[in-house]
Amino acid sequence: MNELDALVEAAQASFSKATTPADLENAKAQFLGKSGRLTELMKGMAALSVDEKKSRGAAINLAKQAIEAALAAHRQALADAELAQQLQAEALDVSLPGRQRGQGGLHPVSLTLERIEAIFGSMGFDVAEGPEIETDWFNFTALNTPEDHPARSMHDTFYVEGGTATAPNLLRTHTSPMQIRYAVQHVKRHQAAIVSGVGMPEIRVIAPGRTYRVDSDATHSPMFHQCEGLWIGENVSFKDLKVVFTNFCRTFFESDDLVLRFRPSFFPFTEPSAEVDIQFQSGPLAGRWLEVAGSGQVHPNVVRNMGLDPERYIGFAFGMGPDRLTMLRYGVNDLRLFFDGDIRFLSQFQ
Ligand code: DAH
User: Fold this and answer.
1) Which of 138, 240, 265, 267 should be mutated for ligand 1, with most atoms under 8 A from CB?
2) Residue 219 has pLDDT above 90, yes or no
3) How many domains is the chain built from?
4) Is 167 part of a structural domain of the chain?
5) What is the chain's mean pLDDT, rounded?
6) How far is Cα of residue 339 from the mean position of the Cα atoms in its chain?
7) 174 Cβ inside 6 Å of ligand 1
8) What was the pLDDT predicted at 1?
9) Are the CB atoms for 338 and 109 separated by under 8 Å?
10) Do 127 and 257 belong together in one domain?
11) Domain with 344 in it: what CATH number?
12) Which of 202-206, 221-225, 315-319 is least confident?
């Protein structure tokens, strides 16, 4: 191998060892720089004759071109490698799952309310909603619970400033005020028929909503839900209450052998009054009596406050706790879980 070929090979070897552009520039200087090996060879030509210069010059030029080509090739290779590395580093993994929006869902108590509305709806009950800030009249007095009545002490609540007996002054302690509110509207709508003696269509309504009491433990929350029920007509009896409520409970809990017990109790706005207990025949709660509602035949004073004649109109009412129904249906043992807003708990009901 002649000297020039060896030089070209040496240059190629040196270039290909370079792993960075700086390495490559150093290598280039060794061959093509001012005092590089090729430059030295060219300087050496000064002593040659004209003919020798021609042939030697051509040969050195070829070698120079070969070295420059090798240099360019390696430069390109380094640039390609750098680009490849950069692309690799910046690569997007398109197989990663996208960021998803959290999926919301109905609160378990809302699911229960929907269920209650659907079941009573199928039995011809209207659904009504009313104010949570209530007057003393609707919350107590109209419901046969005058100011000095001892039953008021079981309904300690939160009062708002500036209220009077007729202006809203308290957070309602139950949904029972809706009995009066709804009935009064109904009576107004059918006043002509009532006055003429034809009589009004029956009142059949449920009123779900939030209620408030000064109470807080594993089974009581200062805010809780109730659902009121009212059926008033000319011939509505306690038997109808039993049929309706039994039908409701069996449908709600999807259990045909569910047993109900009407246990005598007291409420100022009903007479007689009963607490409704249910008993499952199978499952984890089997055999225990579980209280789910208060109920009774609407007191004549309450019927009167609805604007109706208690000699002609009669019916029943009930008030149940959707929170408790939800706990029983899903086997939840602490009411407070419903109101903590913990997504790990709530998502289990979707
Ligand atoms: N309002 C009662 C309470 O909160 C529950 C109740 C009992 C409602 C008897 C009624 C009823 O409609 O007839 O304790």
Assistant:
1) 267
2) no
3) 2
4) yes
5) 92
6) 12
7) yes
8) 65
9) yes
10) yes
11) 3.30.930.10
12) 221-225
